Amino acid sequence: MFTGLSAFPLTPFKNDKIDFSAFERLLDNLVTAKVDSICAMGSTGLYPYLSRDELTSVAQKTVAMAGDIPVMAGIGSLRTIDVLKNAEAAQKAGVNAVLLAPVSYHPLNESEVYSLFQSVTKELSVPLCVYENPRCTNFTFSDELYRRITQLPNVASIKVPGMPFATEQGATRLATLRKLVPQHVGIGVSGDMYGAAGMAAGCDLWLSVIGGLFPNLVKQIIHSVQSNVVTTSELQQPNLDELWQLFARNGGGLRVMAAASKILGLCDGNCLPAPLMPIPEEDQIVLKALLERLQLS
Q1: What is each CA distance from 60 to 73, 83, 154, in whole angstroms?
Q2: Residue 17 forms beta bridges with which residues?
Q3: Which residues contact 18 (CB under 8 A, 6 or more apart)?
Q4: pLDDT tens for residues 8-17?
């Protein structure tokens, strides 16, 4: 399941409770597009904001609606014991894989992160994707830590930041990772601005925020890469520059995708849990015009 597009949908809220009607609309969009996999409760899916009962319900709903599309679920939490309980709940819900980032309040060191993954992988019966997200976790994986963690049982993929793929160093970075990790471990690119370049460089999958709302756009880009239809430079999608600028101004893709979901009528009003707030009105105007111009729906 660690190839192609892994789509990261929002977990929408209404009055500080999960809006399952809106969530069903978001999932139906992904199922109709026949994405390669769905990652429920990734960063966009707000896993750190969910109780275990909410995590269980979201996982169950995703599995029920996904049909034969594989489902991955985020299980991160501050304490290892809670990660283990999340993993158990997700597996009981029927997910095909789990996604784990080293979540912390006090920044973790490498020994602590290794211990986390060691403890969790021993208890899993499904594959695990290692999630590196330095902006949110304040932790960066060293190459040696990647080597050690990917030797653990059930580790099947790593999700690496896309920044190196903004330059010619991307291919070199990918080649280094290929030598470090076992052959069976898939390498995925994150950070949608760099997704096309990462896939062009040879990454196995694109773990995508925009793919959670605009799956056909990302599928088209991936198809173009794999078919050698266009050049890598053309795949930088210059017509999406305004979208990346919105991401940058609003702390990433979460708030922008929430606003887009509202504009498209998929969610009812602000679909983020407090204290998260919508993007500014001026950015909503820019986003609405962009969606209309690019015919994104």
Answers
A1: 10, 18, 22
A2: 14
A3: 11, 12, 50, 54, 57, 58
A4: 999 999 999 9
Phi-psi region of 80 (alpha: psi -120 to 50; beta: other; left: phi over 0): alpha
Residue reference for tokens 């896939």:
199
Q: In the Cβ-directed half-sphere of 161, how many Cα atoms lie within 13 Å? A: 14
pLDDT tens readout for residues 130-186: 999 988 899 999 999 999 999 999 999 999 988 888 887 888 999 999 999 999 999
Token pair for residue 191? 């950070």
Position with higher pLDDT, 164 vs 120: 120
Q: Where are the beta strands (DSSP E) in 80-239?
A: 97-100, 128-131, 155-161, 186-190, 205-208
The three-class DSSP label of residue 144 is helix
CA distances from 202 to 59, 242, 261 (A): 30, 26, 31
Which residue shows structure tokens 């609003």?
250
pTM (2 d.p.): 0.94
Among 28, 29, 35, 95, CA closest to 60:
95
What is the distance between the alpha carbons of residues 87 and 66, in angstroms, rounded to a whole number?
Answer: 19
Question: Is the predicted pLDDT of residue 46 greater than 60, yes or no?
Answer: yes
* b/e per residue 230-254 (b: at least 16 CB within 10 A): eeeeebbbeebeebbebbeebebbb
Which residue type occupies 94?
G
